[in-house]
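User: I'm writing a short report section on ligand binding and want a predicted complex to refer to. Could you take this sequence and zinc ion and write out the structure as tokens? A short remark afterwards would be nice.
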Amino acid sequence: MRTYKQLLLANQAWATELTDERADFFAQQTAGQCPEFLWIGSSDSRVSPEQMTQTPPGDMLLHRNMANLVKHDDHNLMALIEHAVTTLKVRHIIVCGHYGCVGSTAAVTGTATGSMAAWLDTARQVYEDHREDIDAQDGQEARVNRFVEVNVRDQLVNLARTAPVQQAFAAGAELFLHGWVYDIRDGLIRPMMEIDAATPLDAVPRPERVLLTTEERIAAGDEVLVAATTR
Ligand SMILES: [Zn+2]
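Assistant: Sure. The structure tokens for the complex follow:
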């Protein structure tokens, strides 16, 4: 476990490395931002959007919450979407779920209490809306994986229905919404779906299954997971 002093030392090393590469790196940062991406993902400590996509400062706006939910009454996220789409004119918005999501697991099992239960009400609704598909999966791991996938779909549709996105679509702006899942077992992002101005939002299909269970992947000869289990 890193102590807080190590965080500060690492920060000094990081800033030094960047200025060694480009002396005016931080001077340029003060000129403003022109990010191309807005990332909406889970708060999970194992999911590091900038690190796993090697995105430098200035290229990606970030919003993270438990179970990567897009709620129209969440002023925190709605303010960011408005700013990102209307003012900064980002081209791509990504909603990314992930394997092993704690909030998603709680949404499927219905075990959350307190503030977590209150926050996850939207996720519980996703579970109810896709219950037939989710409950048809074999075992809890597969059910949570399926929830993660259909949850990204539903949140992406919620995102597409926000006023700033609808206005950008109507104005013919270059704006694309992407639904991805990140697999903490091998560090890879699996793209699932895309929504743009031409997508009929009332008929967005459920994505294909991309998060297979560990058992399924070992059976299929997945090298990373086979190596992990035979170590
Ligand atoms: Zn999560």
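A remark for your report: Strands lie at 37-42, 60-65, 92-98, 176-183, 188-195. The pocket of zinc ion is lined by residues 42, 44, 67, 98, 101-103 (CB under 6 Å).
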